[in-house]
Amino acid sequence: MASFTWTLFFVGLCLKVTQTEASSWTIKMPSSIKGLPGSCVVIPCSFSYPDPGKKVTEFNGIWIEMTDYEKFSYKGNAVSITMISELNTIGFSIKEEVTEGQSVSASCSVAHSCPTSPPVFTWSHSGEEHVQPQQLKDGQWSATSTLTFQPTSADHNKPVQCTVTYKGGQHHKTSRTLKVKHAPVNVKVEHKSEVKEGEAVQLRCSSDAYPPATSYQWHNETGSQLHRGHDYTLLKVSRHAGALYCTAINTIGSGKSNAVQLNVLYAPEIAEASSCTSEGDMVKCVCISDSKPPSMLYFVLPDRVLPSTKVEKHGSVTIGTLHAELGSSVALCCLANNTIGNANLTLSLPVNSKMLNLYIIIASVAES
Ligand SMILES: *[C@@H]1O[C@H](CO)[C@@H](O)[C@H](O)[C@H]1NC(C)=O
Ligand SMILES: *[C@@H]1O[C@H](CO)[C@@H](O)[C@H](O)[C@H]1NC(C)=O
Ligand SMILES: *[C@@H]1O[C@H](CO)[C@@H](O)[C@H](O)[C@H]1NC(C)=O
């Protein structure tokens, strides 16, 4: 057996039994006692002796010596102290499965030899703790700590741990994983981050629930039910599709996701309002495109392609402006493209104002 350098404190606890029952030299104490190195042992003992005929007030000695009285040795009743090298196992009890919000008690108990400095319990979970000491036989004691708390969904599948620290610093711990029945939480709509308009998109309702969610409902923002089931397939998604959310339901309750708005991508559409106006010798063309993602806008002449001189973006609307001197051209084409597709629209150029004046002069001359 290993030799311990730990100190073992021991305390003798001898109680004199009442005189009336006492008639002979007898002693009651355990023949052996187990102690943890570094901790202490308390040896319980009770003895009796023949009636001395007078009052005995003082006891002392190694262990017992009574002043003014016949001496007696109880050395036949030696107690041996055994050092234990392994810590006593911790008894742990908790209901395996609990329900969120309902009070649950976990208890942790351990046998020890040191009632004057009993083991200290530390719990991994907060709650109301209550410690109950108890005397066993042969110098052994037990201490039980009971923790009462209200578990939440966050405690599901998490360990509840009890740590026992003995006088002298030795400690050990034990834990149990808690199953907490709870309504669905972290309810989310899973879907592709982007979807092209007109395509099908599959939505899935995910959640953390115990027991697992067994039914799902889908609603739009006004609360109308759209579908029931874990998956919801929108066959032809539209850019105008409103936000929607899902609700997951289990035997405990239900949980709702945040509203999700699909990111529906579509090719450019050029607004009929796009046009060109003249500004002196210059022409100003404005091309307005609606698309997602926003478009790039070009102005195409028969012989060249001009990029916009100014581009503004307002959500899905892109406004490209061209300021240029276009000479004798009569039409140009506005071209819009994005990752989904492209569109074009022919814009007529205003008749040059100097030329217009000339036509008026010619016309009036012709009339006269
Ligand atoms: C929700 O759905 C109902 C029924 O399909 C429909 O009448 C209503 O306009 C929708 N509301 C929104 C905001 O999309
Ligand atoms: C749009 O077209 C131009 C010219 O063909 C090309 O360089 C550009 O990458 C296109 N943009 C997108 C978003 O497809
Ligand atoms: C303009 O669009 C039409 C179809 O809408 C296409 O046939 C034509 O090639 C396009 N023009 C340019 C310059 O992209």
From TrEMBL:
Organism classification: Eukaryota, Metazoa, Chordata, Craniata, Vertebrata
Entry keyword Disulfide bond: yes
Record's GO cellular component terms: membrane
SMART domains tied to this protein: IG
Domain Ig-like: 85-179, 184-263
Name of the protein in question: Ig-like domain-containing protein
Alphabetical list of Gene3D superfamilies matching this protein: Immunoglobulins
Assigned keywords, A-Z: Disulfide bond, Membrane, Signal
Pfam families: C2-set_2, Ig_2
Main localization, broad class: membrane
Compartments, record wording: Membrane
Signal peptide: 1-22
Membrane topology according to the record: Single-pass membrane protein
